[in-house]
């Protein structure tokens, strides 16, 4: 049994704070729910987990918060586990929200020891914000021996796992981009490098665009990929090593009318013909055509030489969690990282390919996923993924700095 619902995390955090003032802590005998309590009924210290059994003493209800759109990729995995192991997890509820509000929702719960969120599925943004506030259990550091399937990570997924600093588990992965997407009826001479892209934008003002990087996966992938394309001095240092990138974006800015605050508007702009050329990623190229938001005829292309800026989704557990629920989560995550289950992440191309482990091949994916990829995927993507080098995204503090510079020096007044 599961329930899905969408919440505004800021409202959730506020509501939770009011509830703390009005209500006492929940009873410890809650079917594996809530946070651990001591003999007086007070919340156990956030870092005091105690001994975690191999299996929970009774089936638990798991409350999952998704701030990455990860439900598309992992809901089937989790439903399958619940169906196969009702003695471990009796039911699951889903809440969804935005990563910027994650800390405001989770921190009051961790500080009080009263958790209503058991597991968070997040991108690097939410992972990093929680690390900064010391919100997550060091699940890999403490229980890595119970997550043996991590040994089967794809090499770039293993690199993304390192960014979790032992506090999160990569569950899905994709190479991302930057790629280009275009209307073939308008773009007849497709750019193959940044200089040709700039020349095309100059010749077609208002027809190329991208979203504000702080609010867009393709936007920030384009931003972080440019230092490699432009041979900047230090692609890891946006303040002192990106001279070529910032100069390039200033020039490109002359031919861009506005920067949407999310990728959805970019998709709309290409579908209605407002824009004819955009930066994209594998997933944002495939899924909008598969679900009808973009015409199927939209084409994609790669730069002649580029570096994939990879991406991943993580599972993290708030501190103060009960031992029974941690036990259940460990069993769930180990299950999710088996090839035949992780292959569910192919979905309809949202995070293409999607799986994080070796052996999770497309033939193991659900039939509808295989059909979507066959019809809307690109037959050259897999070779490109194998051939081109990869790098991880900027570290959190550098990513925030890059966004701030872009907001002030490039996008100001246009988003």
What's the arrangement of secondary structure elements?
Blueprint: E1 2-6, H1 9-22, E2 60-66, H2 71-84, E3 89-96, H3 102-112, E4 119-122, H4 124-132, H5 139-143, H6 155-162, E5 169-177, E6 179-182, H7 194-203, H8 217-229, H9 243-253, H10 263-271, E7 277-280, H11 282-290, E8 299-301, E9 308-316, H12 323-336, H13 339-342, H14 367-376, H15 381-387, E10 390-391, H16 396-409
Parallel strand pairs: 1-3, 2-3, 2-4, 9-10
Antiparallel strand pairs: 4-9, 5-9, 6-7, 6-8
Estimate what percentage of residues fall within beta strands: 5-15%
Task: Report, as a whole number of angstroms, the end-to-end distance.
Answer: 42 Å
- The shape is globular
Q: How many alpha or pi helices? A: 16
Sheet of most strands: 7 strands, mixed
Counting DSSP E segments of at least 2 residues, the number of strands comes to 10
User: Structural class given helices, strands, pairing?
Assistant: alpha/beta
Helix-strand pattern: EHEHEHEHHHEEHHHHEHEEHHHHEH
What value does the average pLDDT take? Answer: 90
Provide the helix percentage.
25-40%
Radius of gyration: 22 Å
Low-confidence stretches: 1-8, 10-46
């Amino acid at each position: 049994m599961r329930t899905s619902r969408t919440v505004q995390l800021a409202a959730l955090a506020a509501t939770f704070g009011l509830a703390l003032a009005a209500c006492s802590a929940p009873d410890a005998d809650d079917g594996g729910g809530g946070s651990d309590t001591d003999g007086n009924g007070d919340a156990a210290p956030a870092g005091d987990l105690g001994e975690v059994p191999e299996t929970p003493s009774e089936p638990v209800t798991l409350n999952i918060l998704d701030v990455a759109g990860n439900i598309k990729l992992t809901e089937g995995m989790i439903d399958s586990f619940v169906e196969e192991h009702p003695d471990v997890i009796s039911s699951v509820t889903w809440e969804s929200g935005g990563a910027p509000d994650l800390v405001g929702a989770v921190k009051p719960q961790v500080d009080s020891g009263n958790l209503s969120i058991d597991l968070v599925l997040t991108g690097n943004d939410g992972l990093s914000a929680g690390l900064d506030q010391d919100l997550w259990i060091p699940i890999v550091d403490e229980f890595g021996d119970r997550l043996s399937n991590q040994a089967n990570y794809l090499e770039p997924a293993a690199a993304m796992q390192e960014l979790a600093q032992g506090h999160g588990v990569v569950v899905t992965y994709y190479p991302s981009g930057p790629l280009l997407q275009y209307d073939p009826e308008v773009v007849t001479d497709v750019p193959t490098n940044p200089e040709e892209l700039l020349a095309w934008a100059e010749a077609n003002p208002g027809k190329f665009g991208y979203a504000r990087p702080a609010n867009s996966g393709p936007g920030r992938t384009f931003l972080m990929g440019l230092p490699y394309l432009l041979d900047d001095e230090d692609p890891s240092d946006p303040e002192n090593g990106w001279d070529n990138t910032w100069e390039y974006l200033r020039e490109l800015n002359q031919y861009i009318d506005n920067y949407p605050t999310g990728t959805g508007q970019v998709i709309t702009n290409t579908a209605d013909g407002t824009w004819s050329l955009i930066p994209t990623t594998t997933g944002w190229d495939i899924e909008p055509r598969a679900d009808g938001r973009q015409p199927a005829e939209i084409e994609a292309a790669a730069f002649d030489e580029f570096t994939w800026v990879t991406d991943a989704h993580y599972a993290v557990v708030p501190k103060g969690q009960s031992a029974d629920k941690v036990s259940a989560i460990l069993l769930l995550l180990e299950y999710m990282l088996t090839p035949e289950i992780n292959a569910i992440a192919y979905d309809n191309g949202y995070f293409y390919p999607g799986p994080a482990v070796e052996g999770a091949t497309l033939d193991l994916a659900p039939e509808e996923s295989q059909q979507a990829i066959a019809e809307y995927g690109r037959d050259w993507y897999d070779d490109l993924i194998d051939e081109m080098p990869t790098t991880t995204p900027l570290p959190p503090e550098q990513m925030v700095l890059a966004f701030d510079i872009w907001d002030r020096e490039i996008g100001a007044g246009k988003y």
